[in-house]
From TrEMBL:
Species annotation: Erythranthe guttata (Yellow monkey flower)
Sequence ranges assigned to domain Disease resistance R13L4/SHOC-2-like LRR in this UniProt record: 288-613
Bias (Basic and acidic residues) ranges: 668-688
Family per record: Belongs to the disease resistance NB-LRR family.
Domain of life: Eukaryota
UniProt-recorded Gene Ontology molecular function terms: ADP binding; ATP binding
Pfam families, alphabetized: LRR_14, WHD_DRP
Keywords: ATP-binding, Leucine-rich repeat, Nucleotide-binding, Plant defense, Repeat
Region of interest (Disordered), ranges: 662-698
GO biological process terms held by the UniProt record: defense response; response to other organism
Keyword presence, Glycoprotein: no
Record protein name field: Uncharacterized protein
InterPro entries with a match to the protein in the record: Apaf_helical (IPR042197), Disease_R_plants (IPR044974), LRR_dom_sf (IPR032675), LRR_R13L4/SHOC2-like (IPR055414), P-loop_NTPase (IPR027417), WH-like_DNA-bd_sf (IPR036388), WHD_DRP (IPR058922)
Length: 698
């Protein structure tokens, strides 16, 4: 039996390790797979589930139970670095079994990727097996992930559109009422369940239609992806360290930053004719405009007759009119690029499915998009419509094809009269700037036979006075639509939400109210609190009829983020026990009359972050611990892991045993006396509070 605390901790860790290792062979033996496919699946899922299920039990049974050992803490960090990949964890365990001290473990942790690659023979063999075990329809989807830069968070919506344009998503896989996009999301979910890709869900704005926000590849998996892509001629990647010819690859991805020298000799032109995809993904590259498409330029469209995907992103480009010769093009993206003008010849692209014009500067767009009869996904931001048909983009003619319309322009650049005609529209994001536009959108959303599944609306400059009738009725229609996912009301007068009724805002996850004049606060909070899926709420620059608002018990059942900004006459905020049970982040700023934090916050155990930004000094003082003594409101929030107090631009850190503060204060001389005593455990787990993050965008 160990006699020291250190030995007790080591016993706990190694008991867990050995018990897991001994149980895994039994799991594989009992599975009795009948095929090679089953055997490979058993390896992945059994290892993952066994580790997850057995680890807590082993540590619980290890006696005597002590605080988390240093080795256990380091080990868990390394498991996280492995991205949950059982194969990487297996190799890491083989390395660590010969390391007996915490210093050796820390050394491994600091360079865990290098250590994993030293054992690459074992990793490579099993990773090859994991790729071979993929179903035939997932293999090209997996290989396509190699197009993106290392460690990049890949936006899932862009990935789905690329997969669809490449023809990697089979229409035969569609179920009833499913779209190809649904099938693409299902493919990604299957890759994630096989530990081949790491997915990230929307923290505040996930919905049934849009589960994942982004994905990324573990370094070892990305190496596998690139090697398999090169071996099969699927993909050629060119970056700062690799300027080799593309050989026979059918897809070319170029990654470069501001230091890259890109010119006409950047790659071998004689081997371009087989390209199906060309992705030029820059990172802060703004040295000069690169001519794309004409003879003698970096890439000649006349030699790319089979091109299906053209992505020119995060750079400065001049797009040649020869783009109209790419008759097989399915996907054209100028995302976050600087391009002055979209050539008129784009209307010659008969098979174009996706057009992404979300550029960083205003781009001139000819009013001919309505002639692209197969266009399914149109993404816009800050475009200038040019041509003889006026300054609004005509969509008449896309009735049977367009499924996605996302216009992030301020104000919107599309002709609203065409929107009700888009009978196959599934996803809509648009800014409404007048009463007429509001009426059109309300009509579209309330149509019974609509295919619309997600609506993201920003409404400005509308009068919602119930006594004036029409706009108030239109607001009710939109709130009753099951497609409404996010709603922002900005600079609109006489806002009074309709009385709550069943199915109102059934799928609303994000609501923002800005500059709404004078509002009855209790009524507003009572109605909003009944929305069943609301996860993010922002109230800004409002004036309430009374100086108090109240969150009733059981209200806001799914709310995770709450932002209260510049509520000029708010003096008291009451939170009943049971309200906001899932709140994880609270931000209060410039509410100058608010006296104190509500007492009910002490019951919200899910709260992880509290930010008090530019609040009165008296308000922040009530949350502090001074000379080891907690002030009046400290007990209400002592369970919150991260509290950030901003009095002005200078910042100091004050830590407490159960939580810590990041404070902004002019007086640095009192730092030492304001700091409470720290326990030895806290010193080992010392952390730094993150700065206040920007509010999630709609």
């Amino acid at each position: 039996r160990p006699e020291t605390e250190q030995n007790l901790e080591d016993v706990s860790f190694y008991s867990a390790k050995f018990e897991i290792e001994e149980s895994l062979p039994e799991v594989f033996h009992n599975a009795e797979p009948e095929t090679e496919q089953n055997l490979e699946d058993v390896y992945f899922y059994s290892a993952k589930l066994e580790i997850e299920e057995r680890l807590p039990e082993v540590y619980h049974n290890a006696e005597p139970k002590t605080e988390q050992s240093p080795l256990e803490a380091i080990g868990r960090q390394m498991v996280q670095k492995c991205g949950g990949l059982p194969l990487a964890i297996t190799v890491l365990g083989g390395i660590l079994c010969e390391k007996l001290t915490s210093s050796e473990w820390k050394r491994v942790s600091e360079d865990v990727d290098l250590y994993l690659k030293r054992g690459d023979e074992k990793v490579k063999q099993v990773l090859d097996l994991s790729y071979d075990a993929l179903p035939y329809y997932l293999k090209p989807c997996f290989l396509y992930l190699g197009c993106f830069p290392e460690d990049q968070e890949i936006d899932t919506e862009r990935l789905y559109l690329l997969w669809m344009a490449e023809g990697l998503i089979s229409s035969e896989e569609k179920g009833r009422k499913e779209t190809l996009r649904d099938v693409a999301e299902r493919y990604l979910n299957e890759l994630a369940s096989r530990c081949m890709v790491q997915v990230r869900k929307h923290e505040y704005c996930s919905s049934a239609y849009n589960t994942f926000k982004s994905c990324r590849l573990h370094d070892l998996i990305r190496d596998l992806c690139l090697s398999k892509g090169k071996e099969k001629g699927f993909l050629k990647l060119i970056d700062q360290t690799n300027y080799a010819p593309i050989h026979v690859a059918s897809r070319l991805a170029i990654h470069c930053d501001g230091a890259a020298r890109v010119d006409n000799n950047y790659f071998n032109k004689g081997e371009e004719t087989n390209l199906r995809s060309f992705l030029f993904l820059c990172k802060g590259w703004r040295r000069r405009s690169l001519v794309i498409g004409s003879k003698g330029s970096a890439i000649d469209f006349n030699k790319l007759k089979r091109l299906r995907i053209l992505a020119l992103e995060n750079g400065e480009f001049i797009l040649s009119s020869e783009v109209g010769n790419l008759i097989h093009l399915r996907y054209l993206s100028l995302y976050k690029s600087c391009v002055e003008e979209l050539p008129l010849s784009v209307f010659n692209l008969p098979y174009l499915q996706t057009l992404d014009l979300r550029t960083t500067m205003q781009i001139k767009v000819p009013n001919v998009i309505c002639k692209m009869k197969r266009l399914k996904h149109l993404l816009l931001k800050g475009i200038q419509v040019v041509g003889e048909y006026g300054d609004q983009l005509i969509l008449d003619g896309l009735e049977e094809s367009l499924e996605t319309l996302r216009d992030e322009s301020h104000p919107s650049c599309v002709r609203f009269a065409d929107i009700p005609k888009l009978t196959n529209l599934v996803n809509l994001k648009i800014e409404v700037g007048s009463n007429v536009e509001l009426s059109i959108i309300a009509q579209r959303m309330s149509c019974r036979n609509t295919q619309l599944r997600e609506s993201h609306l920003s409404i400005s400059n509308c009068d919602f006075n119930p006594e004036r009738g029409s706009n108030y009725t239109n607001l009710r229609k939109m709130l009753m639509s099951p497609s409404l996912a996010t709603l922002k009301l900005n600079n609109s007068t006489c806002i009074s939400l309709p009385r709550y009724q069943q199915w109102m805002c059934a799928n609303l996850i994000d609501f923002s109210l800005y500059e709404g004049g004078t509002i009855e606060g209790d009524s507003l909070m009572r109605i909003l609190g009944k929305f069943p899926l609301l996860k993010r709420l922002s109230l800004s620059q409002l004036k309430f009829t009374k100086a108090e608002i109240r969150c009733l018990a059981t209200s806001f059942p799914q709310l995770k983020f709450l932002n209260l900004h510049c509520l000029s006459n708010l003096e008291r905020w009451v939170v009943d026990k049971g309200a906001m049970p899932n709140l994880s982040r609270l931000q209060i700023s410039l509410c100058e009359r608010l006296e104190m934090i509500p007492h009910g916050l002490r019951y919200i155990t899910s709260l992880q972050e509290l930010n008090s930004v530019f609040m009165p000094k008296e308000f922040n003082d009530r949350l502090r611990v001074v000379n080891g003594e907690p002030r009046e409101d400290y007990r209400k929030v002592c369970h919150v892991p991260s509290i950030t107090l901003y009095d002005d631009s200078r910042m100091k850190v004050v830590r407490a045993p159960h939580s810590f503060y990041t404070e902004c204060n002019n007086d640095d001389s009192n730092r030492e006396q304001d700091e409470p005593r720290r326990s030895e455990q806290y010193e080992r787990e010392r952390r730094v509070s993150p700065p206040v993050a920007e509010s999630p965008k709609m």
